Amino acid sequence: MRIQGVFSMSIINRLKSLFKGDNEVTDINTDVSNTSNDVKVASSKNIKVTISDEEKEVSITKQETVTESGDRNVDLTFKKDIKPIEDETVEDTVQDSSEEIVEEVEVVEETEAPVEAEEIVEETETVEEDEDAPEEDVEEVEEKTNNKERDKMTLLTDKELLNDSNRDPDFTAEFIDAGIETVKHCFQCGTCSGSCPSGRRTPYKVRQIVRKCLLGLKEEVITDDALWMCTTCYTCQERCLRSVKIVEIIKKARNIAAHAGYMAKPHKMTGVYVINTGHAVPINDAAKALRAKIGLSELPPTTHSYPEALEEVQKLCKLTAFDELIGYDEATGGLKE
Amino acid sequence: MEIAYFLGCIMNNRYPGVEKATRKLFEALDIKLTDMEGASCCPAPGVFGSFDEETWATIAARNLTIAEDMGADIMTECNGCFGSLFECNHMLKENDEKREKVNANLAEIGREFKGTTNVKHFAQILRDDVGFEKLASLIEKPLDLNVAVHYGCHFLKPTDEIGIEDQAENPSILDDLVEITGAKSVDYKDKMMCCGAGGGLRARDLDVTTSFTKEKLDHMTEAGVDAIVNVCPFCHMQFDQGQTEVNERYGTDFALPVFHLAQLYGLAMGLSAEELTFDAQKIDATPAIKKALGE
Q: Which of B201, B205, B223, B220 is nearest to B283 (CA)?
């Protein structure tokens, strides 16, 4: 049963990390300190409800393994509700965790010396293990769930836990409405972050941003400078196991950020150049001379040579209110402020 | 064959030797490049695409309508322009709602997006429309040069939309095109990695951008190449101008000259370094050119 202690702790840590958005779950070995002859098992009613048959079997198998190591007294506490997590995600997490646990069994068993377990709960119930009927044992555990204990698990007393009030469903809807339905397909495997050249050198965490966009954590997404550290290289999108349009998500999130006023001045200035000349990198005297020298027209046959074409571009920027968006000052041909 | 030649910004306004080489090359191939008169910035995906999709699509669509009026397919030799124009063309052909919105804007300047043009990349046209054999016949003297090919990002990706036949993670199109000139494409670590300029990063944060570029330059240098070959003037600028910025920031002494694929062909066809405006680039290309020509 010690194993299930670790098992459950791992789930909770993972759920926590999803809320907090940490990239990595803290080293699972630290959970071993919670494991002793008196194991404190933290579980989630929500998880039990959504658990599939397949995962139940995994759980049972673990109990059998434990049984071989002798009878233990087990303290069980249940925490009921973890709302913002969707069922699908919880199942994924459970699967992940159960795989991990198989590897961790040895680590736990090596902990021979009595380790002082940290008190996770104050009130506990003891469940006698039944070697012959592990399945019933699971049911028994569920029956003994006590509602009054639900709020006493220390790991979920984190004051920064997110709940529905942190979410802005309209923010998520903007991605869906823009045709990026694949934002819902992300199962947080992290292949994107693992592939990301920007993530190797900046605080940009693409997996986390996709998650936050799906959860509707608008302010967190649009106020974070890291959103602008993506070079749109598409490596993440190419490798995504779920074919999520990741770069589209990032660009959409940036659009929302820009319309909320989060724009860097150099970016606005690029817009200014286009409004003034039709080009983000306009011609200059050196380039004119260079062009003439090699037998090209001094001015290329672009908006540089056709003022009426430039007027078209300028009119379009007004029609779409791009000039207002970047704070273009028509009088000065620069930025307002 | 007639092609609507989209110039963009950086190539014609900073590295006109690329434009010169391209015009000469297509003259020799007997393919007519027709100027898209009054074309603007593609517009820059990093700013327009990140700030306001509708503005980005509207200005890109205006450029597309110029080619539609000419009844020709578009060629661009910049990955950024290719990304913007291809993506916009693809999006407006597929999405009625967005096309109506864009066309409502274009109607105000007497234009309409009809979806009758295709956007092609320079390298794509060379391989698929011209063919290796014909290209090989233009080479006067094979170049003796070891190069690091840099593909850039908005060329083959996103693969589910672009449809240039190749493998985005392990491509061969540019290596094949380079080797026709006699130059050798040398493999190097993280070859497919981004140069660091895109997505508005160069404008916003030069420290991060140069950190990408340094990593690329480290790996290219380790492979012992004489030069870098690219198909994007923005990557070109990042490796040329950016290389001096890397050297300033990191105290390094990288000196890898930068060739656009068109310049490499220009050199192999006998154009001078001056005509290819190598003399205006930050990193001295003279040693590489001398080696390439066996001088």
A: B220
pTM for the whole structure: 0.77
Q: Does B59 touch chain A (CB under 8 A)?
A: yes
The one-character DSSP state at B278 is: G
User: Could you give the 3-state DSSP secondary structure of residue A88?
Assistant: helix
- This complex has an ipTM of 0.96
Preferred mutation among A227, A234, A315 to probe B, highest tally of B CBs within 10 A: A234
Q: Peptide bond preceding B45: is omega within 30 degrees of 0, i.e. cis?
A: no
More confident residue, A99 or B246: B246
Q: Are A210 and A249 in contact (CB under 8 A)?
A: yes
DSSP conformation class of B125: I
Cα–Cα distance between A304 and A313 in angstroms, integer? 12
Q: What is the pLDDT of residue B47?
A: 87
B103 touches chain A (CB under 8 A): no
Tens digit of pLDDT for each residue in A101-133? 444 444 444 444 444 444 444 444 444 444 444
Smallest CA-to-CA distance from B157 within B45, B47, B238 is with B45
Q: Measure the CA–CA gap between B83 and B155, rounded to whole angstroms.
A: 7
Nearest to B58 among A198, A295, A316 (CB): A316
Dihedral of CA atoms B142, B143, B149, B152 in degrees, nearest 10, equals -80
